[in-house]
């Protein structure tokens, strides 16, 4: 159960069965509370040290939000906080001692740059930091002709007069932008620099603003962008390093198994271009293959991701083997002497046989038109049976 105590220092709850079963806690900014062990229901309060910091404009006295406040104290105390739009921040429960405060805000200069605050036990210290504006901003919006905001576009302000001083901003979900820290008395050219994703800049009207900054902000630098789509241009370089360029070959680009482009390329062309692929971050494949009527090389496929304005894909090609070509391996060459030795041993065995068996090996029948006629070669005579 929670309740608030106002204008008095006691409250009543109950009835309850046992007071010992009740746990009571209290909270209040700037105070520490503890229960009195000798008296059930009595809460003792202790006022803590508190440091309040207020940041404002020295000229307009307006509170400044978005300030980065760095606080460094004793016993290695460090704190970095961004102050909200109220321009006020509280530090409660700080240990007694000296603290060093430094405020940082773009376009503002704080004097002094470092402020010291002394915190005493149980005391509330108040410090005000005042800054003077030294640079200013330009505001605008980028939209399409239909009124749709153009998101994540980089708008740049560049001054050639003031040593190429440059600042930029990215459009928000509403197409709004604010370019900060522009110096007074400097001439700036405000234009679209590109897309935050790395894509090309949309075509806008007007294409630029030439402005001269003064000691105040500049509003209303709105631009209308023509409709555009993010695209990828593809260049395919086919490398025929170890073979002549074939007279005809084919190049196809596919995505997810579907053919996006299919072209027939004629020699001596070795570079293929394809424009306006969608820059969708998906994986595409490039396949180079020979013409159907001839197979001078092995088909090759290379993959790439369409996530940049330009992609260069290199496809190395190697020559294919013809069916009529016989490949002689090192093992075959080593086996030739072995088979030669076997043949030599065989002929040596034939020479050692008696002449009759040696010549008989060369005996074979011949057809002479007469039955029973035989001829023996490598003999000095021919036998003819009598009829």
TrEMBL record:
TM segment ranges: 328-347
GO molecular function, one term: carbohydrate binding
Organism: Angiostrongylus costaricensis
Listed GO CC annotations: endoplasmic reticulum membrane
Name recorded for this polypeptide: Nodal modulator 1
Entry keyword set: Membrane, Signal, Transmembrane, Transmembrane helix
PANTHER family the record matches: BOS COMPLEX SUBUNIT NOMO1-RELATED, CARBOXYPEPTIDASE REGULATORY REGION-CONTAINING
């Amino acid at each position: 159960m929670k309740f608030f105590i106002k204008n008095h220092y006691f409250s009543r709850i109950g009835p309850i069965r046992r007071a010992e079963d009740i746990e009571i806690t209290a909270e209040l900014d700037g105070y520490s509370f503890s229960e009195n062990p000798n008296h059930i229901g009595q809460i003792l309060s202790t006022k803590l040290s508190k440091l309040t910091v207020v940041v404002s404009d020295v000229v307009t006295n307006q509170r400044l939000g978005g300030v980065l406040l760095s606080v460094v104290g004793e016993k290695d105390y460090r704190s970095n906080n961004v102050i909200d739009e109220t321009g006020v921040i509280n530090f409660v429960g700080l240990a007694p001692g000296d603290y060093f405060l430094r405020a940082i805000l773009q376009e503002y200069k704080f004097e002094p740059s470092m402020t010291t605050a002394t915190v005493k036990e149980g005391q509330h210290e108040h410090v005000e930091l005042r800054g003077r504006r030294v640079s200013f901003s330009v505001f605008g919006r980028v939209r399409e002709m239909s009124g749709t905001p153009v998101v994540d576009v980089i708008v740049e302000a560049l001054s050639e007069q003031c040593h190429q001083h440059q600042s930029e901003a990215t459009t928000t979900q509403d197409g709004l932008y604010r370019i900060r820290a522009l110096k007074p008395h400097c001439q700036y050219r405000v234009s679209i620099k590109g897309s935050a994703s790395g894509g090309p800049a949309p075509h806008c009207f007007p294409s630029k603003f030439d402005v001269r900054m003064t000691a105040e902000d500049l509003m209303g630098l709105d631009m209308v962008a023509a409709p555009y789509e993010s695209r990828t241009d593809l260049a395919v370089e086919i490398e025929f390093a170890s073979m002549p360029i074939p007279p005809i070959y084919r190049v196809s680009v596919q995505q997810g198994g579907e053919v996006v482009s299919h072209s027939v390329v004629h020699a001596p062309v070795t570079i293929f271009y394809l424009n306006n692929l969608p820059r969708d971050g998906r994986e595409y494949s490039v396949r180079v293959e020979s013409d159907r009527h001839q197979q001078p090389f092995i088909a090759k496929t290379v993959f790439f991701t369409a996530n940049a304005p330009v992609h260069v894909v290199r496809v190395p090609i190697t020559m294919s083997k013809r069916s009529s070509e016989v490949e002689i391996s090192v093992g075959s060459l080593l086996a030739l002497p072995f088979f030669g030795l076997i043949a030599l041993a065989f002929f040596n065995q034939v020479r050692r046989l008696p002449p009759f068996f040696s010549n008989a090996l060369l005996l074979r029948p011949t057809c002479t038109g007469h039955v029973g006629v035989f001829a023996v070669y490598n003999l000095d005579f021919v036998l003819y049976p009598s009829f």
